[in-house]
Amino acid sequence: MRIHFSMAAMAAIAGFLVLQARPAVADDSYDVAADRDRRAAKARGELGARTSVTTVEGVFVLIGPPGFQGAGFDQSVALVRNAMAGYLNGRFDRKPSEAISVYLFPNAQGYERFCKARYGAPCIAHYGFYHPADRSMVMNAGLGLGTLTHELVHPLVESDFPRAPTWLNEGIASVFEQPVIPRPGEIHGAKNWRHPRLRRALTSAEKEHARLDVLFGMADETFRDDAEDLHYAMARYVCQWLDERGKLWPFYRRWRDTVAVDPTGEKAFEAVLGMTPAAANTPWTKWVLTI
Question: Element (H or E) spanning 4, and its range?
């Protein structure tokens, strides 16, 4: 069965965020089952006794407050199960070893109310975010479940490739803002709302700043500068281009395994693609302009 989630409601600005601070490694006394129970109890204390709680893959504690139950919450749970089946099938080798709370709110009001109560401030992103310091994902599911499949990638990258640069982390996550799950254990991404921004750059004076090879060696701080929306679009469509050619995960895994001697990933890219990032810019640009 093909599952294809619409992102039409998300065609405004980039609103996904992962905070960069890494959580401390758990000591030998860490008990994941006890942590899951503690997180469930805390959620019910925060949101009410009727809060729905379901665990997926032993670590993701999905939390649906009163008002987001029944079909809406069930659809979110099903999506996480289907997405994780794909993510852990020949893609990521490791999943998080510690429990993560996933708060799903049906509208902006509940989403913002929670952020103010938990963090003492408005939510830091419009659609959702992952906060590694307390291992929590918080999102406004009312804007689309693509937020969920995006944010799930961040703790997977954190566990599987902790030295991954922001462009790769966000690029892979952004591919799955528009998830396509054609069969169990398989997941890909379709063209989404980031495409027009990249197309504009590639057909204007910005094109020299939108080259595929610009990403390689890009500092995390540069990724999030004033051109962040363009950088997201570039990273997203580089990763989708690679995935459509069956090269994303061989590239990812080779870079992950050789990052100590290949910090920019250029050697891994050339080994897998048979061309340098600079040489790949021409076929990648042609593809972007024709999809």
Answer: strand 3-4
Domain ranges of the chain: 3-181, 194-290
For domain 3-181, say whether CATH 3.40.30.160 is its number. Answer: yes
Indicate the DSSP class of residue 13: S
- Strand-pairing partners, residue 55, are 61
For residues 193 and 31, what is the distance between their CA atoms, to the nearest angstrom?
Answer: 41
Residue burial 236-265, b: 16+ Cβ < 10 Å; e: rest: bbbbbbbbeeebbbbbbbbbbeebeebebb
- CA distance linking residue 271 with residue 266, whole number of Å: 9
* Dist. CA 250–CA 271, nearest whole Å: 10
Specify whether the CB–CB gap between 137 and 102 falls below 8 A. yes
pLDDT in tens, 140-179: 988 888 889 999 999 999 999 999 999 999 999 999 999 9
Following DSSP, what letter does each residue of 59-96 receive, concatenated? TEEEEE-TTS-THHHHHHHHHHHHHHHHHTTTT-S---
Model confidence, pTM = 0.88
Position 68 confidence tier, pLDDT thresholds 50, 70, 90:
confident
* Antiparallel, parallel or unpaired: β 136-140 and 128-131: antiparallel
What is the pLDDT, as a whole number, of residue 17?
Answer: 52
E strands of 52-115, at which residues?
Answer: 52-56, 60-64, 100-105
Beta strands in 11-152 (DSSP E): 16-18, 52-56, 60-64, 100-105, 128-131, 136-140
What's the token pair of residue 288?
A: 């972007």
CA 25 to chain centroid: 21
Strand partners, 131: 136
Between CA 132 and CA 130 the distance in angstroms is 6
